[in-house]
Amino acid sequence: MALPIPTNLPRQEDVISKILAKLDGATYESLNASIVVSWRVELDEAIRLNEKQLHDRIHGDAVEFEQQLTSAKEIQVGLQSLSENIDSLDKSVSDPESGIIPVLIRNLTAHQTLAQESLNADTLYRSLLHLSDCRTELLSLQSLVDEGNLPRAAKSCEALQHLLDTAPSPLDKAKIFQVIKTSLDVLSNRTQELLSGTFSKSVAISPSEFVIRPSIHAPQSNISYSLSDVFASLSANSAISHLTTLRRDVLAHYIDYTLSQPTSVTVKTEIEFTGTSFHKLSHVPSPPNTENLLTRLDNLAAVLDFLKQYLLPSLPISQKESFPKSLCKPMGSAILTHLLEPSLPSSLHLLPPFLNLTKKAVRFEEDHIVGVLGGASNNRDIKSWVDGVSGHYERQRRLSILEAARTIIVEIDETSSTFHAETISAQEVNDEISQIPATSDTEGGDAWNLDDDKKSTGNASSIQDESGWSFEDDVIGVEPESTDGSNVPPPQSTKVQSTDDVDPGDAWGWNDDEEPLVDDENAEETVWDDPWSDAPSEISVPARPPAAPSITSVPTETVTRPDNFAAMNSHSSSAASGLEVRQAVDSRHTRSGSRSAIKEVYLVSSRTRSIIRIVENALQEGKELISSGIFSYSPTSTSLPGTLILQSAIQVLNLFRALYTVTFSPRLAQSEQSMLFSNDCFYLSEEIARIATYERGLLTVKEELVECRDTMKLLSDSWFHDSIDQCKRSIEVILSKAEGFTETADQDRFDECEGAITQVLREIRGTAHRWKPVLAKSKFYMALGYAVESALSNILDDILALPDIPEVESHRLSELCKILNSLEGLFVEDTSLSSFVVSYVSSWLKFSYLSELLEASMADITYLFEEGALVDFEVDELVKLVRALFADTPLRTTTVNKILGGHPVRQ
After folding, report:
1. Are strands 203-205 and 263-271 parallel, antiparallel or unpaired?
2. Looking at residue 220, what is its pLDDT?
3. Which domain holds residue 804?
4. What is the crossing angle of helices 643-663 and 389-410, to 10°?
5. According to the model, what pLDDT value does residue 126 have?
6. What are the BP-aspect GO terms (predicted)?
7. First-residue to last-residue Cα distance in the chain
8. Which of 174, 203, 232 is the last residue before a domain boundary?
9. SS3 letters for 98-147?
10. What is the DSSP letter of 443?
11. Could you read off the pLDDT of 648-677 as tens digits, one per residue?
């Protein structure tokens, strides 16, 4: 096998190509005869050489060449013979007259025509035969319908429909076939309509009667057929529709109604005029006041027995199980919804009859719902509900209790009904403090005027505790002693006793030995019958009120002073009245005091009494339920019987906390209302504490009661202090108008500051007027003390922050400070006794001394400092005040250095 020559190798140029290349390269001038002759000679030579090569190649293997030549000739002869045979065969196969294929086609066509004619004849025969059957069945159906034999007519409809469904396909488009179909539809619909009417007559149900006819006569015929035949003859859709309607009517008229209304059910059999019998169930209303709920289950059992005996056996096979089971769930739900749940009693003594009812309901479920209707024995809703009946009873009672509480809580009390509750406060009585004489304006005039030469006999009774008159401790404060026990102790309530009718005049514990009996209507009038009560609109601003100890007399042997200061203090009887008060206060802590119980009353909303009554009733009901043992232990229950009712008492209090502040938020924006709400919470906390302490059988909720008590106490304290903070903010806003009491030498600025101080005084007195009828005495003075302390502290901070106080400004600032000295009257109950303002206003003495220090000389300040009368001031505050009041002199430097050495230690 010769290898192919690669295309990239050069090929030998043939003769033709050479000659053509020469022809192509010849020009008109170079082309002549000689050149053409040479090309011809060259071409002839090439032809001769090719012929010679062919001849040499043939003769080189002549034998093989001859063989191939012979074979080629034979092949040529065979090919010619084959062509002739093919032409002859083609003529014998394809000749139109005698060819095989044309003859075969003609024969096959004739056979096909014959076969089609045979098939058509057979199809026609079978179609006619089928049509004959259909016609016969249709005529039979027509006659049955006309006779009124509806059950057989229904079966005939099914047979004719089967014939139509299995009809030969050629009949589908036949007109006669369509006519038969139309006739069948008409007759079938008429049959079903007549069957539906027959069923309605056989099973007639109305709100008052339920009639079942076992057999019925066809209209205008003597033919009768049974109810089961009617059921069997109805179409599947029609049967389902009728049974659905029947189930709905049975549930509405004979199950729900029987369970929800007192009725009397009767079942009887009667005979019609045609001689056929029928069964009738009827019910009529019964008197409700004589009904026993157990009869409702008996009536329902009679209904089910009626269905079991006369209806269920006639049901078609397809509905014999499904229809009774479809009644199980609705019937169980109806018993729960219309009988058991509405019959849940609202009190413990009604539980035994109800429990008998639940037991009978469980038996009814087992005998009738499971036994008769075939309900699932492992899915018994009534038994599951009855097993948890204690929880259902308690949840209903809890809902009722909470609803009653909610109604009371959100009720708008137009009359603002209140009552006075009693609390017991511990008061420490100190004999020594009571001997300090009260300040008298009429006898001594102005005890604080350094320029007054008159004798000043009054001194302020100031009481403070060991922490330097601080009243941040709410447990036991410091109070002045009173010989008759009428002075007010620091705020501490130890026990609250609710009194239904308390004398409002006894609001401060004056009538402890009397019977507290008066109407709440007189509370507003008598609660303000105090000798020191001031109407909020009447504001007295004395020029020099006796609020602080006098420093107008200093012993000459103690401090060397200028002559004018010695002349100013000519009355030695009042020389050390400030020190006497300080010594009395200091000695108070070293002398033994006695503690007595002081009864106080405070205002409480009447709704709290109702809430406590609900709480007590709920707890009592829970205890009775637990002790009765009427409910047996249920494995499905997560708590013991009675626990939910006990816990509902806690939830009532939680509901009060959640609803009241939201419902009455606009009202609580008023300070007296917020204080009243604080009292309500405090009263509730004390009542809860009483219940938790003295009530027995509350172990399951005792911790929750204690927690609720603490929560109510915390809520009371929060609203109490929020009201105080609201008052403080009002005071701070008013004092901001004074702009730090700067430049009071200017008359306009002084008027602005004086207006701010006066407005603060009016605000505090108005707040006291609103708080006094509401709060207990101890709480009232504590709250009022916080308000006054806020005003004094702000003024102290502003004045002590002034870097320079000229003489004119110092006098005016002193006058401004003394305006608030009249607030001391708010802390006096008896003019014959001393004020106890220091017990509740920790900065009172400091503020009182400040008004005098602003006008005092350097010698006065030095004397008071050495005697320990200025211990309320910090050393830095005194140094800053001295530097602001006095020019830089050696005397001021000496005084400052002495002050920087610290307060003297009293021996």
Report:
1. unpaired
2. 62
3. 418-600+719-900
4. 20
5. 85
6. endoplasmic reticulum to Golgi vesicle-mediated transport; mitotic spindle assembly checkpoint signaling
7. 145
8. 203
9. CCHHHHHHHHHHHHHHHHHHHHHHHHHHHHHHHHHHHHHHHHHHHHHHHH
10. H
11. 999 999 999 999 999 999 999 998 999 999
HEC-encoded secondary structure of 304-343: HHHHHHHCHHHCCHHHCCHHHHHHHHHHHHHHHHHHHCCC
On whether the CB atoms of residues 518 and 707 are closer than 8 A, the answer is no
Q: State how far the Cα of 241 lies from the Cα of 646, in Å rounded to an integer.
A: 52
Q: What is the Cα–Cα distance from 398 to 391, expressed in whole angstroms?
A: 10
Domain co-membership, 482 together with 348? no
Domain's final residue, options 186, 203, 220: 203
Distance, C-alpha 296 to centroid of its chain: 40
The CA distance from 457 to 395, in Å, is 72
Residue 444 has pLDDT above 60, yes or no: no
Order of strands, edge to edge, in the sheet holding 277-285? 203-205, 209-212, 277-285, 263-271
Cα–Cα–Cα angle for 303, 307, 312, nearest 5°?
A: 165
Tokens 């700067």 belong to which residue? 742
- 815 vs 490 pLDDT, higher one: 815
Helices 671-694 and 643-663 meet at what angle, rounded to 10? 170
CATH of the domain at 424: 1.10.357.150
> Cα–Cα distance between 346 and 645 in angstroms, integer?
12
Residue with token string 């045609």: 274
Residue type at position 149 = N
309 Cβ contact partners less than 8 Å away, ≥ 6 residues apart? 279
Other CB atoms within 10 Å distance of the CB of residue 801: 13
CA angle 55, 59, 65 (to 5 degrees): 105
- Is it the case that residue 146 has pLDDT exceeding 60? yes
Tell whether 561 and 427 lie within a shared domain: yes
pTM given for the model: 0.61
The H-or-E segment that residue 217 falls in is strand 215-217
